[in-house]
């Protein structure tokens, strides 16, 4: 079985009884730093001398299969220098390999720098996110902080003491100088310190240098107060200061039994403006005649009556031509030249 055991983050008195018993009975311990584990055994007065195997970020990938095989036959205790293994410490690779191989994994709870710093920061603790160590280079930090600028939860970071001032300055640039934060230093130790304030204030605080183990907690982004469009106006007639001023425990002049602070003043109806008189429509100007080019007379404007006369004349001429054509081709109405001549003579005689 793989046993993850949390060790004290500064004060040996925080070691649990379960941890001491596990150290007394352990035969194999995979430790982040074997020297730190030996000091822990001596500080807790543990007389057991188990086999110590170094397990750190550089060899965890190679040591994980070996530890999993050992865990099939006996318990393997996994320790970090401080806090719970696998949380920004070695151990994740071993747990993943054990889960894939079907080897059981359990844990001995204990101190945690993340939860401790969050608890003493004075910032919202209902929702938070742990971001671990930030990048060492400024470009990496700025990119990471730019992504996290809109994070709605409290954020917890680990940082080396030599880079605290630069990290706070980059946070102020991306998160805003007025963002609330806390720097927790040397938690549970003799020189424990918690600096609270805005990021701009913490940048000035860290300019002189920071020592010890550091945890940075950044609060949520402040939201601008929203103004409701339907705001009730407080009754201020009883206040001698005039409109908008409030008098504590004053009575409303309209209702003596109602305090002025709870009296809602209705808005007086605004006087309606008289409708504007409509202006008379302007007379349309006659269209301007086109100016003829130089040396030419302007053509006369066509008139409707002239067009009508021309259309009547054309229609009359067309009907007459059509009628004469029909008569010319009708045999019943066709007469000989002799009959035509005799009819002409008769008409002349009659005249």
Topology at a glance:
Layout: E1 2-5, H1 17-25, E2 28-31, H2 34-43, E3 51-54, H3 60-71, E4 76-79, H4 92-101, E5 105-108, H5 113-120, E6 128-133, H6 138-148, E7 154-159, H7 164-175, E8 180-185, E9 193-198, H8 199-206, E10 214-218, E11 233-234, E12 264-265, H9 304-328, H10 337-350
Parallel strand pairs: 1-4, 1-5, 2-3, 2-4, 6-7
Antiparallel strand pairs: 7-10, 8-9, 8-10, 11-12
Helix pairs in contact: 3-4, 6-7, 7-8
Describe the model.
α6 (138-148) crosses α7. β2 (28-31), α2 (34-43) and β3 (51-54) form a beta-alpha-beta unit. The strands form 3 sheets. Strands 3-2-4-1-5 form a 5-stranded parallel β-sheet, with helices on both faces. The longest helix has 25 residues, at 304-328. With 351 residues, the chain is of the alpha/beta class. 34% of the residues lie in helices and 15% in strands. The N and C termini lie far apart (151 Å). It is elongated. It has helices at residues 17-25, 34-43, 60-71, 92-101, 113-120, 138-148, 164-175, 199-206, 304-328, 337-350, and strands at residues 2-5, 28-31, 51-54, 76-79, 105-108, 128-133, 154-159, 180-185, 193-198, 214-218, 233-234, 264-265.
């Amino acid at each position: 079985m793989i046993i993850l055991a949390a060790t004290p983050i500064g004060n040996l008195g925080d070691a649990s009884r379960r941890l001491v018993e596990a150290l007394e009975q352990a035969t194999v311990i995979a430790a982040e730093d074997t020297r730190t584990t030996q000091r822990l055994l001596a500080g807790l007065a543990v007389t057991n001398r188990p086999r110590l195997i170094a397990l750190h970020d550089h060899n965890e990938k190679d040591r994980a299969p070996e530890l999993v095989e050992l865990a099939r036959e006996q318990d393997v205790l996994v320790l970090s220098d401080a806090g719970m293994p696998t949380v920004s410490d070695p151990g994740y690779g071993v747990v993943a390999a054990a889960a894939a191989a079907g080897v059981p994994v359990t844990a001995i709870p204990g101190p945690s720098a993340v939860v401790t710093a969050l608890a003493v920061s004075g910032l919202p603790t209902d929702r938070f996110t742990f971001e671990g160590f930030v990048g060492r280079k400024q470009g990496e930090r700025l990119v990471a902080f730019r992504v996290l600028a809109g994070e709605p939860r409290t954020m917890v970071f680990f940082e080396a003491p030599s880079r605290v001032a630069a990290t706070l300055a980059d946070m102020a640039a991306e998160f805003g100088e007025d963002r609330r934060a806390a720097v927790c230093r040397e938690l549970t130790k003799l020189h424990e310190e918690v600096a609270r304030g805005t990021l701009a204030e913490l940048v000035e605080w860290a300019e002189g240098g920071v020592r010890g183990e550091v945890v940075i907690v950044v609060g949520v982004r402040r939201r601008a107060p929203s103004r409701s469009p339907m705001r009730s106006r407080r009754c201020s007639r009883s206040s001698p200061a005039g409109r908008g001023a409030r008098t504590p425990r004053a009575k409303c002049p309209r209702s003596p039994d109602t305090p002025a602070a709870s009296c809602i003043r209705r808005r007086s109806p605004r006087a309606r403006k008289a409708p504007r008189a409509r202006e008379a429509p302007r007379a349309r100007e006659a269209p301007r005649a086109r100016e003829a080019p130089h040396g030419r007379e302007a053509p006369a404007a066509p008139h409707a009556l002239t067009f009508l006369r021309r259309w009547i004349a054309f229609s009359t001429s067309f009907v007459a031509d059509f009628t004469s054509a029909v008569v010319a081709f009708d045999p019943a109405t066709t007469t000989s030249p002799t009959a035509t001549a005799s009819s002409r003579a008769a008409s002349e005689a009659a005249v």
